[in-house]
Design a protein that fits this description.
Low-confidence stretches: none
Mean pLDDT: 81
Order of helices and strands: HHHEEHEEEHEEHEEEH
Shape: rod-shaped
Oligomer: single chain
Helix content: 55-70%
Number of strands: 10
Strand order of the largest sheet: 2-1-5-4-3
Radius of gyration: 65 Å
């Protein structure tokens, strides 16, 4: 600050007073907006998850109702049941299923469709007898279907296509007589395609896991039925709640950054569905706002700095320049007076030098006078000594005169006598 002029100091101070509050408000706005955006994203993701869970539940219900209704109303199945009911020959099921078609012959949607007898042994299927003759009486889903219950079983892998399917089983009843059970293998690829069409930001996705922790639907097909849920990046903390059928929202850290994971239970099949959204997408608007704010503050600072500098130069520097000019004129006057004083001082110095020379001459004369005075003092002392000697002679003469006078008086007195 030592090298700053008054104008620069005023400009910097004015900018600080204007920019610092603006920066403070901007920083507060960015943090508040970031928190608000994240809360909003969590809320929206949670709402979308509930919708998707409901759609999956509805899809499972539709497939279950489709099989149940087909067992009771489909023309081919009713023909098979009537033939078995009338003849007691279950082999007719395999013949009719391989010579006629039904909606379950759609290989894109279904891996297989088969019919069992009332003991749980497969009587016929739509895949050229691959399942014919298999005894499935030990399967819980078959046992429950033979007890006239429609069951959504677990997810399995097709031996033919190596793709996952969901097995759904329903009882077959004709004229109140239990003929057997009908089972269909619904391909989960169809469900995965539907979930893949759900837009979750730009990099979000949906996945489904069963209660055993197996991934049933995932954008990365290489993870399906191979990678456990708790081994997915960042899912170790949320996995226990998902496997227990819970619902909530968690934050997962992965190599691609932080992600929001909203999960819920698909009760129809005892699955857990999760929606994943990268947090970077949530924070992107806030980061853009921060960039815009920084640019705005920088631009505003530049404009304000120019305005303040112009105002300072106009309102402050000009009077100061006038004062400086007046002070300069005064300084010139002082300089002129100083020159005059210097000239007078020089004249005084010259006069003093002359006086000094006169003083030197006077000093020399005084020294001579002093020398003469000393000589006179010596002479005076000598004269004083001579006077003292003369006085001594006079005193002696006076004494002698007194003695003479006394002698004369004695003589005179003697003469008179």
């Amino acid at each position: 600050m030592k090298g700053f002029s008054l104008g620069k100091k005023l400009v910097c101070g004015g900018l600080a007073l204007l920019v610092l509050p603006l920066v403070g408000v901007g920083v507060f706005s960015v943090f508040w907006s970031s928190a608000s955006m994240e809360r909003m994203a969590r809320s929206q993701l949670e709402g979308l998850r509930n919708v998707v869970v409901e759609q999956v539940n509805q899809e499972l219900k539709d497939q279950t109702d489709l099989l149940r209704n087909a067992a009771a109303r489909d023309g081919l199945i009713q023909d098979i049941l009537r033939s078995i009911h009338e003849s007691g020959i279950y082999d007719l099921a395999d013949f009719k299923l391989n010579t006629q078609t039904s909606l379950f012959h759609d290989r894109a949607a279904y891996d297989f469709f088969f019919i069992t007898d009332d003991k749980g042994v497969v009587a016929g299927d739509t895949v050229q007898g691959v399942y014919k003759g298999k005894d499935l009486s030990g399967e819980e889903c078959i046992r429950r279907a033979l007890q006239k219950e429609t069951v959504i079983a677990d997810v399995r892998v097709s031996e033919r296509t190596r793709s996952p399917y969901l097995m759904i089983v329903s009882p077959l009843v004709y004229k109140d007589q239990l003929i057997g059970a009908a089972a269909v293998g619904w391909r989960l690829a169809q469900l995965g395609e539907k979930l893949g069409r759900i837009v979750i930001g730009q990099g979000g996705h949906t996945f489904i896991a069963d209660r055993a922790g197996r991934l049933l639907v995932h954008p990365d097909a290489g993870l399906v039925l191979k990678t456990p849920l708790d081994q997915l990046p960042g899912m170790a903390a949320a996995a226990p709640s998902m496997l227990a059928g819970g619902a909530g929202i968690a934050q997962a850290r992965t190599d691609d950054g932080e992600q929001l994971v909203s999960y819920g239970s698909v009760d129809q099949a005892r699955w857990s569905l999760a929606l994943v959204l990268p947090l970077a997408e949530v924070r992107a608007p806030v980061e853009r706002m921060r960039t815009i704010l920084a640019a705005t503050v920088l631009g505003a600072s530049l404009v304000l700095g120019l305005v303040i500098a112009w105002a300072v130069r106009r309102e402050i520097n000009r009077p100061i320049d006038r004062i400086v000019g007046e002070l300069g004129q005064g300084a010139e006057d002082v300089a002129a007076a100083s020159a005059q004083v210097a000239s007078a001082s020089q004249a005084l110095a010259d006069h003093s030098a002359q006086q000094a020379a006169s003083l030197e001459e006077t000093t020399a004369s005084l020294e001579e006078m002093s020398s003469m005075t000393q000589q006179n003092a010596g002479h005076a002392r000598e004269a004083d000594r001579l006077m003292q000697e003369a006085n001594h002679v006079v005193e002696k003469a006076t004494g002698s005169m007194g003695k003479l006078k006394e002698a004369m008086a004695g003589i005179s007195q003697s003469s008179e006598e």
